[in-house]
Write a structure and sequence with these properties.
- The protein is of the alpha+beta class.
- It is built from 4 helices and 21 strands.
- The strands form 4 sheets. A 6-stranded antiparallel beta barrel has the order 3-12-15-14-13-16. A 4-stranded antiparallel sheet has the order 4-11-9-6, with no helix packed on it.
- The radius of gyration is 47 Å and the shape is rod-shaped.
- Residues about 1-5 and about 35-40 have low confidence and may be disordered.
Length: about 375
């Protein structure tokens, strides 16, 4: 056989093989396409006979359960009774022991004013008291002498009256001098400003060398053991809260809940936000400062929901299915699940109350836990 003839024969065999392979591929693809076209879609609630009727597990009825609901009312931490440290007299500050964030104790000296003039006035008042006492002492001596002489006839009644008047006048002068001395002592004490509480300095507004006036705020103090959460609650929940009610509180940055107590409900609704303020006191841990953000969990009426064990649900592709006990045997039913609530899962469609679903034995511990 010639070489040309052998070449044509080889090419013919190659074309035949390629054609056969292409035919097999086309037939396979057409088969998959027809299978997809003929496959029925399974909507939620539809059922199919299980290919494995013998199952190992427990049958759990579909039931209604009531779950608690909560609303988080957000707010900020504030001191229950903040203290404004104010001046009672005018003067120039010569010493300041105020540092924001620093702890102070009751009676600790925080601010001193220049008391030079006040000490001078105090000394002058003390001198007036001493003078008034001396004058009264002399007037009493004269009064006793004139009373003796009145009995002997050596002085007249008019002279005795003058002596009595002098004693009364000197007594009044002494009382006035003592009152002025007490006033000077009080004013001098006001030149030293002390802390009225055991607390923390939140802010300070003065420095050494400043001249202050009566009533001027020098600093703000607060007691860290007396703080509260001022939470904003929508007006529709006004009937769900009571004074003394316990509400859990959680602050940003803290991973634990704190037990709080409703101590005050402000009876005023904002016309802009349609909400009111609730003050919730609590024993906050160390590191909680005024102004921190947090929320209180306000209980709402519970919601009644159809549920099944979450472990009873299987996932096949994009479908959620369960094995359901039917009169004809075990069926596979597609469902539409909702929220998960612990070991349970809400059922939005596909099942009704009283029906039983299979909880495989391998997953039974999840429901018991």
């Amino acid at each position: 056989m010639s070489e040309k003839k052998q070449s044509r024969t080889a090419k013919g065999y190659l074309r035949t093989a390629i054609g056969a392979f292409a035919g097999v591929v086309v037939v396979t693809l057409l088969g998959f396409w027809f299978m997809g076209r003929s496959a029925a879609k399974i909507p939620p609630g539809s059922q199919a006979r299980s290919s494995h009727p013998r199952v190992d597990g427990s049958w759990v009825p579909v039931r209604y359960m009531t779950f608690p609901r909560y609303l988080t009312a957000v707010g900020t931490v504030t001191p229950i009774a903040p203290v404004n440290l104010a001046a009672r007299i005018s003067g120039r500050i010569v010493q300041v022991q105020l540092f924001p964030g620093e702890k102070v104790h009751m009676g600790q000296v925080l601010v001193r004013l220049d008391a030079t003039r006040l000490r001078t006035e105090m000394a002058a008042s003390a001198a007036l008291v001493a003078m008034a006492k001396a004058q009264l002492k002399q007037a009493l001596i004269d009064q006793r002498r004139d009373r003796i002489l009145l009995h002997t006839g050596d002085v007249t009644v008019a002279t005795m009256d003058v002596a009595d008047t002098a004693v009364n006048t000197d007594r009044a002068s002494l009382a006035n001098a003592v009152a002025r001395e007490q006033t000077a002592k009080t004013i001098l004490r006001h030149a030293t400003i002390i802390s009225p509480i055991n607390g923390v300095v939140m802010r300070k507004f003065v420095s050494t060398g400043d001249t202050i006036m009566p009533g001027e705020i020098l600093a703000e103090l607060y007691d860290p053991s007396q703080m509260q959460l001022n939470a904003t609650v929508r007006q529709s929940l006004a009937g769900h809260l009571r004074l003394g009610e316990a509400l859990p509180i959680k602050l940003a940055g803290l991973h634990t809940w704190i037990e709080g107590t409703v101590r005050q409900i402000i009876p005023h609704v904002s016309t802009q936000t349609r909400s009111f303020t609730v003050k919730i006191s609590a024993k906050f841990p160390a590191g909680v400062w005024p102004g921190m953000f947090g929320g209180a969990r306000v209980p709402l009426p519970g919601t009644r929901t159809l549920v099944i064990p979450a472990a009873a649900i299987e996932h096949i592709g994009q479908l959620d299915v369960v094995h359901r006990l039917a009169a004809s045997g075990v069926c596979i039913a597609t469902i539409q699940p909702g929220l998960r609530r612990g070991a349970w899962r809400e059922v939005l469609s596909g099942l009704s109350v009283g029906q039983k679903v299979l909880l495989p034995a391998s997953r039974y511990h999840s429901l018991r836990g």
